[in-house]
Fold this protein.
Amino acid sequence: MRVLTVIPELGVGGAEVVAVTIATAAAARGLDVVVASGPGYRIDRLREAGVPHVPVPLVGRSPSGLVRALTRLRALPRPDVVHAHNPKATLLARLAFGNRVPILTTLHGVADEHRRSATGILRWASSRVVVVSPHLGGQLERDGYPAARIDVVANGVNPLPAYPRDRARAELGLSAGAVVGLCLARMVDQKRHDILVDAWPAVADRAVLLLAGDGPNRAQVVDAVARHGLTDSVRHLGERSDVARLVAASDFLVLPTDWEGLPVSVLEALAAGLPVVASRVGGLVEHFADAVRFVEPGSVPAMAEALEHVVTEPWLRADLAERGRRLAAERFGSGSMVGCYLEIYARLAGAASGHLTRAGDPR
């Protein structure tokens, strides 16, 4: 079976982790897999696994870029299935291949203001949609996408590479005894760094916060840190690819988000035994129950209280670490996720083949 994966880029981000995990696992099981995307350091992981990569300009909205992307996609051998990640990749794949190829979309999440337009794209362009959390499926259905064409497949992760804690702290300039919080998130409105920075003074004298990520809100975050007098307690690391080192150096992960699909950063943290403090939103609360210290979204006092507890109570961190590690092992390994996708690939390819044969257009 020939599978083409289409994703805008392959840098930092949970969708990128999922796309590479599925593509490399599918190739290892004998499928003919090609990945088309814009740039990103994860392309090296594909090459190491022997998965061909085709550079396609999928980032941005310029008409000339879209024309180049369509030209390159149309030049590829016709796949049996296209696996597109999120609506834009789905739309481009449908424009490139028409109705000749079934397109599976993984919907990782979309902001409320873009939901209806995204659903409209998916209704027209996608043969089937996988959502990473049940609440996303409910949103899609309410917005008019056919329930019969929706599957729920939770994201799964491979364990992060082992990284010695002492070495990680030394390399990052952290003292051995410091309590260290980590926020791994793009600096965009959704992730609510403002809530985290406004709450951090509650623990600034007892902990260090690592902000790993970049984005359009970076200047606002830097200004807020300075305004609160937190420059000695909060470190801006920028966009990072060394997640294993950052996790090894930290005592907890914090994600003060407004909405999520199913964040890979949380899955990787839980699998590594790193306690998590996060907003009580769909995509988190429906999956993690008592394995995460939940906080009311948008509340600075609630975040400050949670930070106070997780910084000052080592027993709480140990309890959350054990719960999270156990849950990740039981429910969020990559094997189950990959198996579900391969089964959906087979169903879509088989249905398409049967349709073409009946239509008198054998391949």
Observations:
- Residues 334-358 form the longest helix (25 residues).
- The first strand starts at residue 2 and ends at 7.
- The chain has two domains: 2-157+333-358, 165-331.
- The CA atoms of residues 87 and 118 lie 6 Å apart.
